[in-house]
Structures are given as C-alpha cells and as structure tokens.
Request: fold
Amino acid sequence: QVQLVESGGGLVQAGGSLRLSCAASGLTFSWYAMGWFRQAPGKEREFVAGISRSGGSTELGDSVKGRFGISRDNAKNTVDLQMNSLKPEDTAVYYCAADFQVTGLDVAVTTSREYDYWGQGTQVTVSS
Reply:
C-alpha cells in the first residue's frame, strides 16, 4: 500500500531552520506531484509548497515565500521541505501529500482536494 512518512520535525527557536523529508513507498513516485500542507490547532489545513512530477515546477504558499523551498529526488522517492527564518506562526503539524498525474501533466498542485494520499504528519514547533 502507499505510504508517505514524514520526518525532521521538532522544536526550533524563531529565526532557525528545519528540513522536513517525506519518504514515499508503494507508488511510482515520478507519476505523482507532491506537496506539503500544515495545520495549526483550531485552523484549517494550509497549503505550504508543491512540486511537479519532474521537479521542474514549484509553488509556495504566500506565507512562506522567500523562506521555504521544496525539492524532490525521484531516484530516492523523497520530497523535502527546507524551512528557513522560522516564525512562531509556522508552528503546526506538517503533512506530505501525493497527487497522481496522468502522462503529459507536470504541474505543481496547491489545492488539498486534488491530493490522493497523505502522510501522518510531523510536528514543527517554533518558540519565540
């Protein structure tokens, strides 16, 4: 079965950096656009970053532009989220997600309802 396993979360001070990683198994990774979302307590799930099947196209949420970056390694079946200049408002559970795309489609996806598979999430806490 498909599994997406996030790692790299933890506690960091404001201004610091973290790198999240998502390892995918049970699917043909290069057929899937990948994304990162986050959800803070009492808030809706928020798009953070997305990357196309090839990695040639990326999208970032407005609140993280200039601070976060997304990358993937199709040989290792992993997608990473590099988070810099972290703020307390970045505190949330971060989820990795996979969106199957038909041949010829190679776009980053920003809407959660498009995604087919989700990981269990990893907690990121930024202290002030």
The chain has a mean pLDDT of 97. The first strand starts at residue 3 and ends at 7. The radius of gyration is 14 Å. The chain is about 0% helix and 50% strand.
